[in-house]
């Protein structure tokens, strides 16, 4: 799963455990999962089913 830093936009794929700070800018709590295109599509189609 690719993660992205909201501070510097650095993207990386952690091997194993996700660090709690960005390996690039060293800021804590900025990392979040970066959604793949397929995940976006799945989410949108789920919303459509509910409506
Ligand atoms: Zn960063």
Instruction: State the end-to-end CA separation.
Output: 29 Å
Rg, Å, rounded: 14 Å
Q: Helicity, in percent?
A: 25-40%
Q: SSE order, as H and E?
A: EEEH
If you average the pLDDT, what whole number results?
Answer: 89
Give me the count of strands.
3
With strands numbered from the N-terminus, the spatial order across the biggest sheet is: 2-1-3
Tell me the domain tally. Answer: 1
Structure description:
With 51 residues, the protein is of the alpha+beta class. The protein has one domain (3-50). The protein is 27% helix and 16% strand. The chain contains one helix and three strands, in the order βββα. The chain has one helix spanning 37-50; strands at residues 3-5, 11-12, 31-33. A three-stranded antiparallel β-sheet has the order 2-1-3, with no helix packed on it. Strand 1 (3-5) and strand 2 form a beta hairpin. The termini are far apart. The model has no long low-confidence stretch (mean pLDDT 89). The protein binds zinc ion (ZN). The site of zinc ion has 9 residues, from loops.
